Amino acid sequence: MAFLDFISKLNYLPLPPKEPMFRFYVEKKARLNDTHIVHRVNCELLPDISGRIEIGVFIEPDLAEFKARELFPLVKLCKYCNKDQ
Ligand SMILES: [Zn+2]
Predict the structure, then answer these.
(1) How far apart are the CA of 48 and the centre of ligand 1, in A?
(2) How remote is the CA of residue 31 from the centroid of ligand 1, in Å?
(3) What is the pLDDT of residues 9-18, one digit of tens each?
(4) Residue 34: left if φ>0, alpha if ψ -120 to 50, beta else—which one?
């Protein structure tokens, strides 16, 4: 039964959580109050490739927002693609 003991112990190993990762982009063009909007890759409001800058892949939208601040002083998460957060 050693093998089964081994398998049962596996169930209690701290497995890394499978968080969904998303690629984020920031709009090049400022909106109201000089704010640049941060979108996920799957957002319908995402500008085409000439109107956006890739920020990277993140688990948390907040991290993408933080990273986008290195490019623009005023950034905001898009309400449309980040509404689940
Ligand atoms: Zn969006």
Answers:
(1) 12
(2) 13
(3) 666 666 666 7
(4) left
